[in-house]
Design goal:
single chain
């Protein structure tokens, strides 16, 4: 929103936009009707980041049109659960768009200044199979301006691997713990740090794992304090929440929050 207002004011000052037209745009209802979607044009002003596109269930043309319109308004844009063919369609309209194949994320990252935060967002996985969900969280936090570090394949089957990185755990501002199977790693990490831990259950596991339900219930029943849980495979939700928490800590340190 700030970027849009600055652009409008500069256009008025330069004489390329009338005061009346600038007022008309400011009074815009806050959304844009596209027929197949109703684009929320004020989400960045309300929540600090533009509307994020969930690609699953949408056509390539639909995703491309929404992405193109968001890219015209904002420096950073994010689209999740995107297959490679949708990325190719988006790239034709927005050549700057990049793609992370493992995370299945399309992103535009023009404004790359990273916030200092209370420390980096540390994304941890129990196993290698959890990396796609973890990368979705990591890319989301990065595009939202956070410093991100990764620590992969340190699950409870070989817990000594985690203990070799205790300094990194302590230095993080927020920790995102991604685990499938029984999902025990989040509780272990939660018992080691005095920082917020966001647990992400994944659908990795054998039959009784029930598509991630076993890990979800383990994380919800964690006896470690300070552990919050998002939905199964919801790396995006974890990365977004981690960025908001770290951003608030940064604002508190700067004295803009009580």
């Amino acid at each position: 929103m700030e970027r849009e207002l600055r652009s409008l004011l500069e256009a008025v000052r330069a004489g390329s936009l009338s005061v009346e037209e600038a007022l008309r745009r400011i009074r815009h209802p806050g959304y844009e009707e596209l027929g197949f979607a109703c684009l929320d044009t004020q989400r960045a002003a309300r929540q600090g980041f533009p509307e994020v596109i969930f690609c699953q269930g949408k056509t390539a043309d639909q995703v491309t049109e929404v992405f193109r319109r968001l890219a015209a308004r904002h420096g950073n844009v994010l689209a999740t659960r995107a297959p490679a063919d949708i990325y190719e369609a988006v790239r034709k309209a927005v050549p700057e768009a990049a793609y992370h194949a493992v995370a299945r994320v399309i992103y535009l990252w023009r404004e790359r200044s990273l916030r200092p935060g209370a420390g980096p967002v540390l994304v941890i996985t129990a196993g290698t199979a959890d990396i796609p969900v973890a990368e979705e969280a990591a890319i989301t936090a990065q595009v939202m301006g956070q410093r991100v570090e990764r620590l992969y394949d340190v699950g409870v089957a070989g817990i000594h691997r985690l203990f070799g990185h205790l300094d990194k755990l302590q230095q993080a501002g927020v920790l995102v713990v991604v685990a499938g199977m029984e999902g025990a790693l989040a509780s272990v990490v939660g018992g080691l740090v005095a920082k917020p831990v966001i647990a992400v259950p994944t659908s990795v596991g054998y039959g009784a794992h029930c598509g991630g339900l076993a890990a979800l219930l383990t994380m919800l029943n964690s006896c470690a304090a300070g552990v919050a849980v998002v939905n199964i495979d919801n790396g995006f939700g974890a990365g977004y929440l981690a960025a908001l928490i770290n951003r608030r800590e940064e604002e508190k340190d700067a004295g803009s929050l009580p």
